[in-house]
Automatic annotation (TrEMBL):
Keywords: Membrane, Transmembrane, Transmembrane helix. The chain crosses the membrane at residues 30-56, 62-89, 96-129, 135-160, 167-190, 196-219. This is Uncharacterized protein. The lineage of its organism: Eukaryota, Metazoa, Spiralia, Lophotrochozoa, Mollusca.
Length: 228
């Protein structure tokens, strides 16, 4: 029976664009140190748990050694009294069995403790090293990210402020230049209009003077010629 896959599984994933590749290259060290940090953190947790179990085995060895001595004392005690009282003879085997049992338990726990101690400390050392190594580089990466973010934010704010101040000064100077130009144009226009109308007034006054004075002169000249 032929099983057909759905179309979404048959189609190949779209190729990465240049922006995706840049983002992947930027985030790859972060993801590496992030995964290393969590791996070393959980490994350290596992190592501490194993260390706890190792010390528990050490405690068990001391505990079993104490019981071994206790049952050994019982063994000698029942062994001695079994010669006199037959009633103590089963307790003799009972104490013998438990003394051997705790004796082997003591050696087994002590052996497991010493056998697991060296690789456990080695394991702890490497995971401590990887933990602090990843923590240092992860902190450094986050610090650089935040530093670059704030640096570019303040730098863009500084550029915006510089651009705003430049635009304000430019437009204010343009406004002053326009105002000065308008004032200069107004003064020039006023002076030109004043001089024009004043010269026109003088020209009119001169013509009026000629219009009045010339006939008077001609009349005076005629009267003087007639009198002669």
């Amino acid at each position: 029976m032929k099983v057909s896959l759905p179309p979404i599984l048959k189609s190949a994933p779209p190729p990465l664009t240049s922006n995706d590749k840049i983002l992947t290259n930027l985030l790859s060290p972060f993801s590496f140190f992030f995964s290393l940090f969590f791996h070393s953190f959980f490994s350290l947790f596992h190592s501490f748990f194993s260390l706890f179990l190792s010390f528990f085995s050490l405690f068990l060895s001391f505990f079993s050694f104490f019981f071994f001595l206790f049952f050994l004392f019982l063994f000698f005690f029942f062994f001695f009294f079994s010669f006199f009282f037959f009633f103590f003879f089963p307790f003799f085997f009972f104490s013998l069995f438990f003394s051997f049992f705790f004796f082997f338990l003591f050696f087994f726990s002590l052996f497991s403790f010493f056998f697991s101690l060296f690789p456990l400390f080695l394991f702890l050392f490497f995971h401590f090293f990887s933990f602090f190594f990843s923590f240092f580089f992860l902190s450094l990466f986050l610090f650089l990210s935040f530093f670059l973010f704030f640096f570019f934010s303040f730098f863009s704010l500084f550029l915006f402020r510089s651009f705003f101040s430049f635009s304000f000064s430019f437009f204010f100077s343009l406004f002053l230049f326009r105002s000065f130009f308008l004032f200069f144009f107004f003064v020039l226009f006023f002076s030109f209009s004043f001089s024009f109308f004043f010269s026109l007034f003088l020209f009119r006054s001169f013509f009026l003077f000629l219009y009045i004075f010339v006939p008077f002169l001609s009349f005076s000249f005629e009267m003087s010629t007639q009198a002669m």
